[in-house]
Specification:
This protein is α+β, with helices and mostly antiparallel strands. Helix content is 23%, strand content 26%. It is built from nine helices and 15 strands. The strands form six sheets. It has a four-stranded mixed β-sheet. A three-stranded mixed β-sheet has the order 3-7-6. Strands 1-2 form a two-stranded antiparallel sheet. Helix 2 packs antiparallel against helix 3 (43-57) and helix 3 (43-57) packs across helix 6. The radius of gyration is 26 Å and the shape is flat.
Length: 365
C-alpha cells in the first residue's frame, strides 16, 4: 500500500512498476509532451510534470520515501513527520532523511514542480530542470529507445531551426536559492532533440532537411557568432520510434574549441487511424449493439492507401480481432516483408432501455 499514486499516474504506470516500466512510461510521456514536438496547450507544464515525477521514481531511496509518506513529505525535505508517524516506529528517518538520500536532485536550472502545495521550507527538495532530466535520460540510453545504433545519413520537415540557441551543457544550477556555474566537463556533450515523424513517412521512407543554428567562435575576432547548417537525414522504411541520428561536432562551440554533438531522436506522431505495435498496425471499428448482433460492414483504408472491406454477418463479440497478414509496416531489416494489420471490434452499448425494449429483448434472446 502506497501513500499516494499521483507521480505514478503521471507516467501511466502502477505503484508496483519495475524501474524498466518507469523508464518506458517516462519515455512515452516525455516524447508526447516535449515542447519541441507537442503544440497542445499546457504541453510544457505536462513535460515538466512527467520529468520531475521520473526524477523521484527513478531513485530507489526517493521512491521509497514517496511510497511511504507521499510527495508533500519530500517537498518539505523530510523535515516534518507525516501525521500519525511516531519517532520510534512510524518514522524511520528520525526527523530527517536517511544517509545517502540526496535531496538536491540532478544538475539543472530553475527548480519548480507541478504538484507543489506550497508547504516547503528552506530545506525543501529542489527539483531539476525538466530539460536537464530529459537530456540525462537520453544520454543514459533513453530507457530502451530502440536498438538501432547511431545512424549517419539523411530527414523533410522544418520548424526546428534556431532551437540550439545556447549550449545546454553549460546551464547554471540553483541550490538553496543561490546560483552557481556547473564545473566544465572535458567530455563531449551530446545535445538531444525530439524529431517528430509521421507513420506514413516511416512506412514509405522520407528525406528531411533541418536548419541548424549554432554558436561558434570566430577565428579572426575570438568572439561568438551564429552559423547556419543544414542537417540531412533519411527516414528509411520501417524505422521505429527511438531511432537516433547523430551529427558529431555540429553543436555549439566553447571558448576552448570543444564542440557539442547533436543527436535527433525519432518520435512517432500520433496517427488518426492506426496504433503501431512493432511492425504491426492496429485499428478499431466501433459498432452499436444492433450491428454487433445482426451483422455489419466497414471500409478501412490501409497505410498504403488501399481500401479493404471488413464485415461480419453473425454476432460479433466485443474485442473480436481480425488479422490481415502483410498489411502492416515494412520490417526495417527486410523492407520487402511487412507486419500485419489488426482490426479490433468495439461494441457501443446503449446507456438505457425502456421497459418495452427490455421485454422485447427478452422475447428475442
Amino acid at each position: 500500500m502506497v501513500a499516494e499514486t499521483r507521480l505514478y499516474d503521471s507516467l501511466g504506470v502502477s505503484p508496483s512498476a519495475s524501474q524498466e516500466e518507469i523508464k518506458k512510461g517516462y519515455r512515452k510521456a516525455a516524447l508526447k509532451w516535449h515542447p519541441d514536438k507537442s503544440k497542445e496547450p499546457g504541453a510544457a507544464e505536462k513535460f515538466k510534470e512527467v520529468s520531475q515525477a521520473y526524477e523521484i521514481l527513478s531513485d530507489p531511496e526517493k521512491r521509497k520515501a514517496y511510497d511511504r509518506y507521499g510527495l508533500d513529505f519530500i517537498l518539505r525535505g523530510g523535515q516534518e513527520a507525516p501525521p500519525g508517524a511516531d519517532a520510534a516506529g512510524g518514522m524511520p528517518f528520525g526527523g530527517g532523511m536517511p544517509g545517502g538520500f540526496n535531496m538536491g536532485g540532478m544538475p539543472g536550472g530553475t527548480r519548480t514542480f507541478h504538484f507543489s502545495t506550497g508547504g516547503g521550507g528552506g530545506g525543501g527538495f529542489n527539483f531539476s530542470d525538466p530539460g536537464s532530466i530529459f537530456a540525462e535520460f537520453m544520454r543514459q540510453g533513453g530507457g530502451g529507445m530502440g536498438d538501432e545504433g547511431d545512424i549517419f545519413g539523411n530527414l523533410g520537415g522544418g520548424g526546428m531551426g534556431g532551437m540550439f540557441g545556447g549550449p545546454s551543457g553549460s546551464r547554471s544550477r540553483q541550490s538553496n536559492g543561490r546560483m552557481r556555474e556547473r564545473p566544465p566537463s572535458p567530455e563531449v556533450t551530446t545535445v538531444d532533440h525530439v524529431l517528430p515523424v509521421s507513420l506514413e513517412d516511416m512506412y514509405k521512407g522520407a528525406h528531411k532537411k533541418m536548419k541548424i543554428r549554432r554558436k561558434i567562435i570566430d577565428n579572426m575576432t575570438g568572439k561568438r557568432k551564429l552559423e547556419e547548417k543544414i542537417a540531412e537525414m533519411d527516414i528509411k522504411q520501417g524505422h521505429k520510434e527511438g531511432t537516433k541520428f547523430t551529427f558529431k561536432g555540429w553543436g555549439d562551440q566553447d571558448e576552448e574549441g570543444g564542440t557539442q554533438d547533436l543527436r535527433f531522436i525519432v518520435s512517432q506522431k500520433d496517427h488518426p487511424v492506426f496504433k503501431r505495435e512493432n511492425d504491426d498496425l492496429r485499428t478499431t471499428v466501433e459498432l452499436d449493439l444492433k450491428e454487433a448482433l445482426t451483422g455489419w460492414k466497414r471500409t478501412i483504408t490501409t497505410i498504403d492507401g488501399r481500401q479493404i472491406s471488413v464485415s461480419a454477418g453473425t454476432p460479433t463479440q466485443p474485442g473480436h480481432e481480425i488479422r490481415y497478414p502483410e498489411l502492416g509496416m515494412p520490417k526495417q531489416k527486410k523492407p520487402t516483408e511487412r507486419g500485419d494489420m489488426m482490426v479490433q471490434v468495439k461494441v457501443r452499448f446503449p446507456s438505457s432501455l425502456t421497459t418495452a425494449q427490455k421485454e422485447k429483448l427478452k422475447e428475442i434472446l
